[in-house]
Design goal:
By secondary structure, the protein is an alpha/beta fold. The chain has helices spanning about 5-10, 25-30, 40-45, 65-75, 85-95; strands spanning about 1-5, 15-20, 35, 55-60, 80-85. Strands 1-5-4-2-3 form a 5-stranded parallel beta sheet.
């Protein structure tokens, strides 16, 4: 499922696991509040850090890596998964407190 950038504004990290699948240097530049960093290349091995029974909303820079993350999570049994269409780049256009890069 694709979430539009404006949908991320109201996400509560206590209710939804916000998953950043970018690299650590990208996370250091800009991130969404409450996001957990698990780079895409590590996701299959680190998915146990996520609760498979809670919703996951993944994002990356433009939305490509987060779409791959959804496939990985679904293959691992996660059912309630979505990603941010347009990535953090699209979100940062709505929220100027999140730097664009």
């Amino acid at each position: 499922m694709n979430l539009p950038p404006e949908a991320y504004r109201g996400l509560d990290p206590d209710q939804v696991q916000i998953l950043d699948v970018r690299e650590p240097w990208e996370y250091d530049l800009a991130r969404l509040p409450g996001a957990r960093l698990i780079p895409l290349g590590q996701l299959a091995h680190r998915a146990g850090e996520l609760d498979p029974w809670r919703p996951v909303a993944a994002y990356c820079h433009h939305g490509v890596r987060s779409r791959y993350a959804l496939a990985i999570l679904r293959d691992l049994g996660f059912q309630d998964v979505a990603h941010l269409a347009g990535g953090i780049d699209a979100y940062s256009r709505l929220d100027p407190s999140v730097p664009r890069y």
